[in-house]
Amino acid sequence: MTTAGSGLDPLAGVDENGRMAPKRYDAIVLASFGGPEGQEDVIPFLRNVTRGRGIPDERLEEVATHYRSFGGISPINAQNRALKQALEAELDRRGIDLPVLWGNRNWAPFIADTFREAYDAGHRRVLALSTSAYSCYSSCRQYREDFGMALVETGLAGKLEVDKVRQYFDHPGFVEPFVEGVAEGLAAVRAELAAKGEPDAPVHIMFATHSIPIGDAEAAGPRGVEYEGGSAYVAQHLATAQAVLDRVPEAAGVEWSLVYQSRSGAPHVPWLEPDINDALEELPGKGIRGVVIVPLGFVSDHMEVVWDLDTEALQTCAALGLAAKRVPTPGVHAKFVEGLVDMVCERTVENNIAERPATTSLGPWMDVCMPNCCANRRGEKPTVAGMDSTVGTGAQ
């Protein structure tokens, strides 16, 4: 298959495991979801998120209340600014001369504008880092589509080459911050229970991630593979949770579970369950007195964390009398930032890191998505960074 408009074979330089040969890149693009930065931004932002679905503003306003509770400001943009600065500092520390640009899918700065900025600055081959660690349509394929659409929209298809680092759910840089957080969370919950005169009361560890439609979960990852939990998305979370627990001696013997949050969409469409609040309500009946909530599906403390976990889930814990602690997300933790730069170096000729560490048997994940991996659910769209790419990727 030849990539349209480029004259290049997308299989060239890619081995049977989807690993791409190192290249010389001249910029990094930090790609993220984006979020509103004021009350007047909230509904336009939500229209961008739900574009093509025909959702009326009245229904969007129901979700808007979460953002309005925080002044209409999502924390994600500030967190991405901090992550961009941390990446720049780590690159500078290593003497790696790669500028970091930043673009969002749903709010300014938009990916298309970032690509224009990159091209106007003389960059012709960029490597994207996304703020999504797992495999599914919205976490991986949709980024690839947005990159492809942005290249078409800007007229840069065939002029600007865009690749993407692998999904990093089990990279040590993503896992280790959670290891620290779980150890500290267990200590905090046990201390709270001891203060209440319950030093030996049972504690539960709940790993939380974004729920997605079951159909999207089943479409995630290469076909023809039997995954634990029925999909790559679920299997990656289960394996990563176990990798975290294996590194926390204090967690030995503690029961744990994978739960979901932030469900949206039509009620007749089945999504991954159980919901975290439903799962929390079952704990007291099992004799559990404390819970450590681990936002395993999230890179930073954006709205799904500060609302769904810090607000709703912790309110549920308080109502149930559960001692509770929410573990930090990786954010700008030094190990996470170092891990992201390591994954950049996996792909570069200069400063190359040949070893690709993974804490689970599922990884290291592919650099290049295989055909029919996380299949498009809304019709054919231009994509990049995959063997089914349909826009030009050859720098000119």
From TrEMBL:
The keyword Nucleus does not apply. HAMAP family: Ferrochelatase. One of its GO terms (molecular function) is ferrochelatase activity. It is found in: Cytoplasm. The gene is hemH. GO terms for cellular component: cytoplasm. Pathway: Porphyrin-containing compound metabolism; protoheme biosynthesis. Belongs to the ferrochelatase family. It catalyses: Fe-coproporphyrin III + 2 H(+) = coproporphyrin III + Fe(2+). InterPro entries: Ferrochelatase (IPR001015), Ferrochelatase_C (IPR033644), Ferrochelatase_N (IPR033659). Involved in coproporphyrin-dependent heme b biosynthesis. Catalyzes the insertion of ferrous iron into coproporphyrin III to form Fe-coproporphyrin III. Keywords: Cytoplasm, Heme biosynthesis, Iron, Lyase, Metal-binding, Porphyrin biosynthesis. Fe-coproporphyrin III binds at S74, Y143. One of its GO terms (biological process) is heme biosynthetic process. Its EC number is 4.99.1.9. SUPFAM superfamilies: Chelatase. This is Coproporphyrin III ferrochelatase. Fe(2+) binds at H210, E304.
